[in-house]
């Protein structure tokens, strides 16, 4: 019989033997990097979060405005709302009468969100918030921007979101894609594709299976953005993306060296790098 033995430092694959003196032998031993807590990640980036995401948020807002088609009287929830930067802009641009319900489990992100106009923070996970039957048919719009990959139980969350919508209301989910002209270093590419795949899980058959009637559409949108080389490297070093917590400091430095050697050796630190970014928007409309 083979079993896995794990501590915070090492993982070992252990095989039992017939030998009474040595009942077990270790057949594989490696350093184990414990999975990091997602709340720990956001606690670490919170102070620089709005600065790190400024240029992409500017790209997301026109796309979200188009896809959400907000009316002043709409009641809106933002799931995995982070620092509330997106909710604030949507609130101001669409002249909403009510603040946006910003659902996010990170206390630190919510402390920043609380300072912003048009934000009503709810410190809960999507799982906790959308399992409450009292929010049934409460919202006209629910959005999730770059947060669906964190849903621990996506089927239950999608079902809860659809139940929380009024008939004719819709859920808009924005996720990243690997279609960006900003080169990624090798170590991060695979991690990012896994993360974006998770955000794509919502589909009509899935929602039908869980008893929700909806029309689903998927559409890609592109926008232009720019970042200085020094900010790009700072973003990596501070692990601006949660997937980067799976890389050690050395692996990140190696990735930065790779980018420097292959693409940016002639770019000055304060020079802007222009790039195109493509996101995927999934829209699920609740059918009456
Ligand atoms: C990449 S950030 C996106 C924040 C914001 N939507 C934006 O685009 O700037 C992901 C957010 O999802 C939140 N999150 C993590 N797990 C969650 C869950 N189970 N339910 C809801 N939000 C979650 C994190 O705390 C974090 O603020």
Task: Provide a short characterization of the protein structure.
With 288 residues, the protein is an alpha/beta fold. The chain is built from ten helices and ten strands. Helix content is 37%, strand content 30%.
The total beta strand count reads 10
**Shape summary:** globular
Rg, alpha carbons: 22 Å
In N-to-C order, the SSE pattern is: EEEHHEHEHEHEHEHHEHHE
Question: What portion of the residues fall into strands of 2 or more residues?
Answer: 25-35%
Structure in words:
This protein is globular. The chain starts with a strand and ends with a strand. The strands form two sheets. The protein has a seven-stranded mixed beta sheet, sandwiched between helices. With 288 residues, it is an alpha/beta fold. The chain contains ten helices and ten strands. Helix 2 (49-68) packs across helix 3 (85-94) and helix 9 (229-237) packs antiparallel against helix 10 (249-264). Mean pLDDT is 86; it is low at 1-15 and 26-35. The structure holds S-adenosylmethionine (SAM). S-adenosylmethionine is lined by residues 38, 42, 53, 79-82, 85-86, 104-106, 109, 125-127, 145-147, 150-152. This is Methyltransferase type 11 domain-containing protein.
Structure keywords:
alpha/beta, seven-stranded mixed β-sheet
Task: Spell out the blueprint of helices and strands.
Layout: E1 2-6, E2 10-16, E3 24-31, H1 38-45, H2 49-68, E4 76-79, H3 85-94, E5 100-103, H4 107-114, E6 119-122, H5 126-130, E7 139-145, H6 154-164, E8 165-180, H7 186-199, H8 204-209, E9 214-228, H9 229-237, H10 249-264, E10 272-286
Parallel strand pairs: 4-5, 4-7, 5-6, 7-8
Antiparallel strand pairs: 1-2, 2-3, 8-10, 9-10
Helix pairs in contact: 2-3, 9-10
Bound molecules: S-adenosylmethionine.
């Amino acid at each position: 019989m083979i079993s896995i033995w794990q501590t915070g430092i090492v993982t070992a694959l252990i095989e039992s033997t017939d030998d009474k003196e040595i009942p077990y032998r270790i057949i594989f031993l490696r350093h184990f990097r414990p999975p990091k807590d997602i709340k720990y990640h956001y606690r670490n980036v919170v102070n620089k979060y709005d600065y790190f995401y400024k240029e992409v948020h500017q790209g997301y807002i026109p796309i979200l405005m188009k896809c959400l088609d907000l009316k002043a009287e709409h009641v809106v929830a933002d799931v995995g709302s982070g620092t509330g930067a997106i909710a604030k802009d949507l609130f101001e641009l669409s002249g909403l009468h009510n603040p946006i319900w910003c659902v996010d489990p990170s206390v630190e992100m919510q402390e920043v969100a609380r300072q912003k106009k048009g934000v009503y923070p709810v410190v809960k996970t999507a799982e906790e918030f959308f399992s409450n039957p009292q929010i049934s048919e409460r919202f006209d719009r629910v959005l999730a921007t770059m947060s669906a990959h964190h849903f621990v139980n996506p089927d239950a969350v999608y079902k809860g979101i659809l139940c929380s919508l009024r008939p004719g209301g819709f859920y808009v989910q924005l996720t990243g894609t690997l279609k960006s002209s900003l080169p990624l270093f090798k170590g991060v590419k695979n991690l990012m594709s896994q993360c974006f795949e998770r955000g794509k899980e919502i589909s009509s058959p899935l929602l039908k299976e869980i008893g929700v009637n909806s029309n689903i559409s998927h559409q890609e949108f592109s926008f232009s953005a720019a970042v200085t080389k020094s900010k790009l490297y700072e973003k990596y070093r501070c692990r601006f993306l949660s997937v980067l917590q799976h890389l050690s400091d050395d692996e990140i430095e190696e990735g930065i060296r790779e980018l420097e050697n292959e693409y940016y050796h002639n770019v000055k630190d304060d020079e802007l790098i222009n790039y195109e970014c493509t996101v995927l928007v999934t829209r699920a409309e609740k059918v009456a």
